[in-house]
Every structure is written in structure tokens, then in C-alpha cells.
Amino acid sequence: MKKIISTQNAPQAIGPYSQAVEANGLVFCSGQIPLDPETMKMIEGDVTVQAEQVLKNVKAVLAESGCDFSNVVKTTMFLDNMEDFAAANEVYAKYFTEDHPARSTVQVAKLPLGALVEIECIAALSAN
Questions:
Q1: ∠ CA 7-14-105 to the nearest 5 degrees?
Q2: Are 87 and 43 contacting, i.e. CB atoms less than 8 angstroms apart?
Q3: Count of domains in the chain?
Q4: What is the DSSP secondary structure assignment for residue 80, as one 8-state letter?
Q5: Fewest CB within 10 A of the end CB: N or C in the chain?
Q6: Could you give the C-alpha distances from 124 to 23, 30, 94, 100, 119, in angstroms and in order?
């Protein structure tokens, strides 16, 4: 059985998908881009500013599912430009401080709405 996770504290889906889905003790969080959840407008700024907003959005979705960053077992970070890796990684490290999840980071040709960074994750409900 699956449960749809939705919160007003993160941007609403801009397509036919859910913010997150809980199934079999895992929470699968859709990729978040740097949208302000109140205005649904892209946060302006460099990759560090955008990564900060992305991770705030991820935090809100995780909280709605009853999780936090300590529950996350896998992330994928998508970058518009791999030269932004070090800067995005600094912001990422502020949110994932210990027992780091597995992670992949890839450069993509283009992200939705011209974002510089997108992050998705999988969390385990019983990780705490």
C-alpha cells in the first residue's frame, strides 16, 4: 500500500507527480528545485542560494512524512553545471551532518524552469 505525502510548506508539484510517496517503510521524495513554496517562483541567485532553498523544500516534505535528514538513506543531486559541485556540496553538508546517505551527483543538460540544482531523496521511516 502507498500513501501520498503532500505539504503546503514545499512547492506544489508542477506536473503529474506527488511531492513524496510512502511505501513499505520508505519515503520516496520527488526532486525539489528552488521554488518558493508561497509564490511558486524560482529563487534567484547562484547555486548556493538555490541549493539552500532546495534543501528547505526537501526538509518540509520529509517533515510531513514524519522524517528528517537523519532518515535519508539515498540522495541524487542534479546540477546544471558540474563546476558548481563544490559550492552545492558545502550547502548540502550543512543539512547532512553525520551518518551521510549514499549519493549520486550528475550534471544534466537542463533542469525544470532553469534551476541550477535539483535534489531528490529516499528516506527510511525506521532509520532513527
A1: 85
A2: no
A3: 1
A4: S
A5: N
A6: 10, 15, 20, 13, 17
Q: How far is CA 113 from CA 12, 56, 125, in A?
A: 14, 18, 31
Which long-range contacts (C-beta less than 8 Å, at least 24 apart) are formed by 11-17?
Answer: 11/35, 11/36, 11/37, 11/40, 11/57, 12/37, 12/40, 14/40, 14/112, 14/113
For residue 48, the domain's CATH number is 3.30.1330.40
Q: Which amino acid is at 34?
A: P
Q: What is the mean pLDDT of each run of 10 residues along the chain (128 residues)?
A: 96 94 97 96 97 98 97 98 98 95 97 96 82
Extract the C-alpha cell encoding 122.
529516499
Longest dimension (CA), the chain: 41
Its pTM stands at 0.94
Residue 104: exposure state from Cβ atoms within 10 A (0-12, 13-18, ≥19): exposed
Give bridge partners of residue 106 from the DSSP assignment: 78
Domain ranges, residue 63:
2-124
